[in-house]
Design brief:
The protein has about 260 residues and is an alpha/beta fold. The protein has 8 helices and 9 strands. It has helices spanning about 10-15, 20-25, 65-80, 95-105, 140-150, 160-165, 210-225, 240-255; strands at about 1-5, 30-35, 50, 60, 85-95, 105-110, 130, 185-190, 195-200. The chain is elongated. The N and C termini lie far apart (about 50 Å). The structure holds S-adenosyl-L-homocysteine (SAH).
Length: about 260
Amino acid sequence: MNLDIVTIFPAMIEQPLAAGIIGRAIERGMLDLKVRDLRDFTTDRHRVVDDVPYGGGPGMVLKPDPIFRALDAIAADRGAPLTVIMTSPQGRRFTQAEAERLAGLEHIVLLCGRYEGFDERVRERVTEELSIGDYVLTGGELPALVVLDAVARFVPGVVGDEQSVAQDTFSRGLLNHPQYTRPAEIEVRGVRGVLEVLRVPEVLTSGNHAEIRRWRKREALSRTLERRPELLDAASLDEEEQQLLRELKGAGHERD
Ligand code: SAH
């Protein structure tokens, strides 16, 4: 998969990628990432990328012409047409489903805004506008890294165990079940300073795989019901899960 990220702070993209799974995938050539410094596409001596807004008001706006030149250079290098994603708090919400869809594309370009954002005319070349959540950040670099990270996990070979991606929270419309690892028992001081022994749920050490599977389904469902019930409307549940969900909902009513 090919990715281009256009930014005025290349180090903000490059440095976080020096460590971790995504960085390694780039090193191994599973992802071909090119970070483009927007200032390289200016034509003036001071490499100016921003200017005051027409009509007045606070802040600065990213000039459109360097961005158009950057996109031309990327198209010349990689081939057109381009999927150009503008990061913006006004965009469609980025989700796990969006990440999976984007991972199916051969090439995407991510534009990182700064200051008050982009000159509106840049939208002429933008094919999608994505927001990572309802809050405003100082720049598009963190959103671009978020999109890159979530998309890259779907690229075959990037995450060692593909099963784990398929089972992740959201992948089937449910939150993930709880996980435990060794030791089976630990003695810890709880919030009140009292020593207690914390044990792994017995079913997980039972070796009974059918029971473990059922327990995990039940936990995933009860968590989702408790924390994010709206996800259940769109979740694709098998028969066993539908039955478990009816039981969980029934148990909830009895408690009321
Ligand atoms: N004035 C703009 C916000 C600019 S924030 C407005 O009100 O819409 C500066 C840049 O940070 C944006 O251009 C965008 O690239 C990035 N950004 C900020 N918040 C974001 C979010 N929630 N999702 C994606 N990008 C965001």
